[in-house]
Design a protein that fits this description.
The structure is a single chain. The chain has 197 residues and is of the alpha+beta class. The chain has 2 domains: 44 residues; 150 residues, Sandwich (Immunoglobulin-like). It has 1 helix and 11 strands, in the order H-E-E-E-E-E-E-E-E-E-E-E. The strands form 3 sheets. Strands 3, 6, 9, 10 and 11 form a 5-stranded mixed sheet that branches. Strands 1-8-4-2 form a 4-stranded antiparallel sheet, with no helix packed on it. A two-stranded antiparallel ribbon has the order 5-7. The chain is globular and about 45 Å long.
Length: 197
């Protein structure tokens, strides 16, 4: 009888170990998936995302408010475009403080545009969307005065900017020092105006 009791207890203990092992394996697989996803996303980061030191800066930017030494700007290639033409430009994050590391994925997915259409209605997403999220995956060192630049070839791929008229909007993004870390700063750019003919 005692050996049966021991045997049952052993089986239960083995089941608990297997269950615990299964949970550990699931967690390990999920962490591998997250890492693989981050690496895959990092592999498709466009070359247009880069850090430019103070000595190599040739463009001027109109930055929004400084938060924890960082500020954001959105600059359009042209303030007037023909309907259906690409709307290119640059999003820039400048470090006004001591050298720091920020984490960016390097896509427009890290930014959100807020504004109004010619009719006065809110600007709507028309493409894959640009969720307002923290930055992830790629650590970038920004020296004092350096600017992180994210170029875009056509905002019209993300937002409905087809109708003729005047649009006014600003960009927002969140900065973190590391993957899943606390938000260092939530940045808002100055407002820009776009005329579509």
């Amino acid at each position: 009888m005692k050996s049966k009791t021991v045997s049952i207890a052993s089986r239960r203990s083995l089941k608990r170990c297997r269950s615990s092992s299964t949970h550990s394996n699931v967690a390990l697989k999920l962490s591998h998936i997250a890492l693989s996803t981050a690496l895959l996303l990092a592999a498709v980061v466009p070359a247009a995302a880069r850090v430019v030191g103070p000595e190599a800066q040739t463009a001027s930017y109109d930055f929004g408010p400084t938060v924890n030494n960082f500020a954001l700007s959105i600059k359009l290639d042209s303030a007037t475009v023909n309907a259906g033409s690409p709307i290119g430009g640059v999003l820039a994050i400048k470090n006004f403080g001591p050298p720091a590391t920020i984490f960016r994925l390097g896509t427009l997915e890290e930014y959100k545009l807020t504004g109004q259409t010619p009719s006065g209605s809110p600007l709507e997403k028309s493409g894959p969307g640009v969720p307002f999220s923290g930055s992830v995956s790629s650590g970038l060192n920004e020296d004092t005065g350096a600017i992180y630049i994210q170029q875009f070839d056509d905002l019209g791929k993300w937002y409905d900017l087809k109708k003729p008229g005047t649009y006014a909007f600003y960009a927002q993004t969140a900065l973190a020092r590391g993957l899943g870390g606390p938000i260092l700063a939530t940045l808002t750019s100055s407002t820009v105006t776009l005329i579509v003919r």
